Amino acid sequence: MGTICALIFALQMLNFTIPGGTSGHLLGGALAAIVLGPHAGAIVIAVVLIVQAFIFMDGGVVALGANIFNMAIVGVYVSYLIYWLIGRISKKRIAFFISVALASWLSVVIASFFAALELGISGTYAMGITLKAMVGVHSIIGIGEAVITVAIITFINKIRPDLILTRERSLQ
Predict the structure, then answer these.
(1) pLDDT of 86
(2) What pTM was computed for the model?
(3) Which residue numbers in the chain have pLDDT < 50?
(4) Which residues contact 156 (CB under 8 A, 6 or more apart)?
(5) Domains and their CATH numbers in the chain
(6) pLDDT at residue 171, as a whole number
(7) Cα separation of 104 and 33, whole Å?
(8) What number of CA atoms fall less than 13 Å from residue 166's CA on the CB side?
């Protein structure tokens, strides 16, 4: 858990400014969920967010609850659900990597949707502008997230497949 936590912490430090008053970054929720399982993955993402907020003043202490909900709960569990559902449909190796890519991409997009929804409901920004800005940009960031997550999972799967705790032993 510590190694995945450190890796995700480093990846999340890459921030991209988004028009409309916020920023985007890689999430790592799918990576944590796929390697460690959804419960441990949620804990890892929550720890990363807590360290960022209190030690590095990144993400904000005031927004910590929303960030944990959006990234550690929604991002992790939605990504795991997608990964798990595709794994139930097919046990083929290609389906495994497609599930990793799709879960990674969707985790970023759905987490950004919830963040935009919260910002819109709060009245901080107009709902339409925030939704377009956040989801649009995060759809692109999600592609990067999918590529990076698939690369890391491929590497782990090649050298130590036993470290992917959710991986079915019967992949072809």
Answers:
(1) 94
(2) 0.89
(3) 169-172
(4) 35, 163, 164
(5) 2-163 (1.10.1760.20)
(6) 44
(7) 10
(8) 26
At 167 the pLDDT is 77
Please check whether residue 103 is in contact with residue 148, taking contact to mean a CB–CB distance below 8 angstroms: no
CA distance 142 to 127: 21
CA distance 152 to 103: 14
Contact 16, 137 (CB under 8 A): yes
pLDDT at 168: 66
Find tokens 């910002």 and name the residue: 119
Question: Which pLDDT does position 169 carry in this prediction?
Answer: 42
Torsion of CA 120, 125, 130, 131, to 10 degrees: 20
Q: How far is 72 from 32, CA to CA, in rounded Å?
A: 10
> Tokens at residue 49, please?
């967010």
Condensed to tens digits (0 to 9), the pLDDT of residues 99-133 reads 999 999 999 999 999 999 999 999 988 899 889 98
CA distance 81 to 79: 5
C-alpha distance from residue 95 to each of 29, 44, 115, 125 (Å): 19, 26, 30, 39
